[in-house]
Amino acid sequence: MARFDNKVVVVTGAGHGIGRASALRFASEGASVAIIDIRGDQAQEVAQDCLDAGGRAHAYQADVADPDQVTSVIDQVVSEFGGVDILHSNAGRLRAGTIVETDLEEWNRTLSVNVTSMYLVVRTVVPVMLEKGKGAIVTTGSISGIFGEPALSAYTASKAAVVNLTRSIAIDYARSGIRVNCVCPGWVDTGFNDPQFDHDSLSAADIEELIERTVPMGRQGLPEEMAAAVAFLASDDASYITGQILLVDGGLLSHV
User: Fold this and answer.
1) Is residue 202 domain-resident?
2) Per residue in 83-131, pLDDT tens?
3) In a domain, 212, yes or no
4) 21 - beta bridge partners?
């Protein structure tokens, strides 16, 4: 498929996990991909993976929770690629802890990376999309933004904010040709959830039992499966879909 021929796609948090899979998926379908990550070496590796697969990509190092860096990196993308058609706002972090265990510094950093970065990147990209009269934005939420989870106070609060901020932006720009949707992964086998497993002292066997017990499909999702959902919502196949929250969780929340 070449659903994204002649499209410029920005992916934040693209150096690993879901962001990496998303960048590779967009590149495989014809997009020029701007790969943004706070770790420049990882961003460069993903860009090279896209190029090796026959796609087009460029790596950028930036902390998307920093307003000056966001302005600078989006300016670079627009200058080098000529615009932005699609944004996958994916940068995120997870640190486990109850509200008592979570100090103010950790709370602020989690909300900064998970929510403020989305605010900064979207508000910078939307005017670029408005010039074209169209665009698509996909945010990465989490099932943790839909229901409460133990010992994840900062993370659940931040992902709940992502979910409703996505809806609000979608409403504001629906008549301007910009669609905004959110993908909410469940358990995904990327290492992202390791801080939670470590906090709960779960062994590999414990994790396997937890997944078997809670996920109807009996396994963790793959980053590529999340990327497929992101690509669908960003594509013209989803042309009448905006403001929606797509659970990609193997059925987990169907029986919670």
Assistant:
1) no
2) 999 999 999 999 999 999 999 999 999 999 999 999 999 999 999 999 9
3) no
4) none
State both tokens at 199: 């906090």
- In-domain check, residue 151: yes
Domain assignment present for residue 64? The answer is yes
* Alpha-carbon span 97 to 81, nearest angstrom: 41
3-class DSSP state of 145: helix
Please state whether 24 falls in left (phi above 0), alpha (psi between -120 and 50) or beta.
alpha
Range 252-256, long-range pairs (CB < 8 A, 24+ positions): 252/143, 252/186, 252/187, 252/214, 252/215, 252/216, 253/143, 253/146, 253/147, 253/186, 254/216, 255/216, 256/147, 256/214
Task: Mark whether 155 is an active-site residue.
Answer: yes
pTM of this structure: 0.95
Tens digit of each residue's pLDDT (9 = 90 or more) over 145-201: 999 889 999 999 999 999 999 999 999 999 999 999 999 999 998 876 666 666 666
Catalytic-labelled residue, pool 60, 119, 155, 173 = 155
Q: Look at residue 203 and give its three-state secondary structure.
A: coil
